[in-house]
Amino acid sequence: MGSSGDESREVREFLEGPLMEAYESYDLDRWCGSFTQDVVVMVPGEAPIEGQESWRSFMARHFESSTQDHRYEIKDLTIAGDCAIERHIDASTRHGKRSYWQGMFLLRRQADSSWKIARYMLSPYAEVEPSP
Fold it and tell me: Is residue 54 part of a domain?
């Protein structure tokens, strides 16, 4: 296991690289593969989304209505052993309207030392565009 700085870098690289690349290219397989099988996602106005297959169904509908102008910015990242907690803001356009969100990922280190998202909480945010 690397140092706290190494772990932080690994998590950031995963989130800002493969995870966001999957989201921005609408790659449903890669996006959903970045979450654990037992993922729980909480979004406004919805019952908790439990399990990777339910998350996949939700995201398939989401990708159909999104456009390609997504911004994402990590605001805080804490590593605690085999868990990481990340707080972010993001913005995207859905149904022709710009929306702003704040979110939190809880990640777990996997047996192969990779990181996956186990919990995701999302809520509306003030209209602040994340840094490019």
Answer: yes
- Condensed to tens digits (0 to 9), the pLDDT of residues 72-130 reads 999 999 999 999 999 999 988 777 788 888 999 999 999 999 999 999 999 988 766 66
Short-list 128, 117, 120, 123, CA closest to 34: 117
Judge whether 127 and 97 are in contact, CB under 8 Å: no
SS3 call for 69: coil
Q: Which two tokens stand for residue 37?
A: 């099988």
Q: What is the CATH number of the domain that holds 61?
A: 3.10.450.50
Per DSSP (E only), the strands in the chain are: 35-42, 49-50, 71-80, 83-94, 97-109, 115-124
Q: Which domain holds residue 61?
A: 4-124
Structure tokens at 90: 């993001």
129, part of any domain: no
C-beta separation of 72 from 130 below 8 A: yes
DSSP assignment letter at 66: B
Residue 131 maps to a domain: no
Query: What tokens were used for 69?
Result: 């102008």
Q: How many structural domains is the chain composed of?
A: 1
